[in-house]
C-alpha cells in the first residue's frame, strides 16, 4: 500500500518536473545521446543533492536542444554521471567526498542480480589491509568462504593470508584490476610476528555465477542459564526474507534468552529487509516508526505537504501475509567491523530508540543514505525500458534517520565495546571462543571477556573489502519503487 501511495504522489511530481524541457522544445534527444539524456533526467528528478549541483538545476537548460548541446560534451556516460554528482569519491578520494556511493552500470541484469546476492564470485570473502609500515602494499585475509563456491573446494579457509595475485604484489593501484579477473592465482603468505613472508602456497580460483545465502550461521549457544541465539547475517537480500523468518522461528522454538546478531561482514542491502529484520528482533512495536526517509527538496516538500506518513518505514508483523516470527527482545548484542554498512547501520540506529543495543567490535562505515535503481524508461521503472542499451543508475536518493530523528553518523557508529579482528587470532566463526562473540557472551553472562587472549596479535589498518569492491558497494536501497511509479502511470 505504501509503495502504491508513493507512486501516485510521484506521478504528479514527475509529470510536472519533466515538462521543463518538453514544453519549451519538441526536439527529442538523438539516438547518440539517449544514455546521456537518461542520466541527466534521472539525476535531475531523483538525486538527493540535486539542488547542490548547478548543472542539475531545473532551470539550467531552457530547451531540449540546449540540454543536448551540453550532453554532446561527454563521449562516456560514466564521465557525465560522475560530473553530475556532488563531490563524488572518484574526484575527492582523500576525505572531502560527499557522495561516496552513487554508481552507474552498463548492464542492469548484473546489477539486479548483485542486489539480490547473485554475483560472479569465486567464494572468497576477504578484507584488504595495508602492510605494516607501507602506504601502498596490501595484504588480504580470508574472512569466510561461501558454501558451494569454487573456493569451497580448494585449500583455503578463514584466516589465510595472501599478498599477491599471479605473482604480482597487491597494491593500492593494481588490486582492482588483479582481483577483477574471472580467474587468478592467489600467492599466500604467513605472518612471522613482524611482517609477511611467502609460504610457497598458491590457490587458483575461478569465478562462477554464485547465489550467496546471507544466513551464514544460525545456532544456539548454551552458557550457564543463558540460551544465546547467534545469527551471522551477511547481506540484506530481499529474496531470502522467508528463510530469514524461518531462522528466527528456529531460534524462537528453542526458547533463547539472549541474542547476538553478527553483522561484521554485512555491507547492506534492502531497506525493506532491514525493517523486517528489526521487526523479527522486536515484535512489540508494530506500526511504530522504524526509520524516516528524507528525499531531495522538491520530492520531500511534496511528500510532506500531501502525505508525510509515506516517508516513514514502520515495524511490521507480516511478510507478504505470513506472520513474522518475533523475539520480543528488549536488548540485543550486535557485532560490527569497519565493513558493516548501510542497511546494517540502519538496523542498529533504528533499534536504538526502542531497545538496548550493545555494539561490539569496530566502528562501522557510516552510510546513512539510500539509493534506488533507475532505468531508461518513461518513468525510470523496469517496464518499457529503452531497448537500445542496458544502462542503469543506482544514485543516492534519500537520507535516513531513526524515530528520534538521528541520522548523523557519516563517521560510523562507534561500538560500546571495541574489539578488533586480529589476523593471528581470528578464531572460528560461531565458536564461543571467537574474540568478538566471546566479548558478547561475557557481557551476557557477566563472566568477563578473555581480554588477554583477545588482544593478542596484530590488527592491520583496513583498506577495503570484497563487498565494497563489488557491485553492492555498501548499498542501502528501496526495492521496486520505480515499478510502482510505472504502475501508477498506466
From TrEMBL:
Residues 34-103 form the Peptidase S41 N-terminal domain. The keyword Protease applies. GO terms for molecular function: endopeptidase activity; serine-type peptidase activity. Transmembrane segments: none annotated. One of its GO terms (cellular component) is outer membrane-bounded periplasmic space. It comes from the Bacteria. InterPro entries: ClpP/crotonase-like_dom_sf (IPR029045), PDZ_sf (IPR036034), Pept_S41_N (IPR041613), Tail-specific_protease (IPR005151). GO terms for biological process: proteolysis; signal transduction. Keywords: Hydrolase, Protease, Signal. Residues 1-22 form the signal peptide. Residues 227-371 form the Tail specific protease domain. PANTHER family: CARBOXY-TERMINAL PROCESSING PROTEASE CTPA (PTHR32060:SF30), TAIL-SPECIFIC PROTEASE (PTHR32060). This is Periplasmic protease. It comes from Flavobacterium aquidurense.
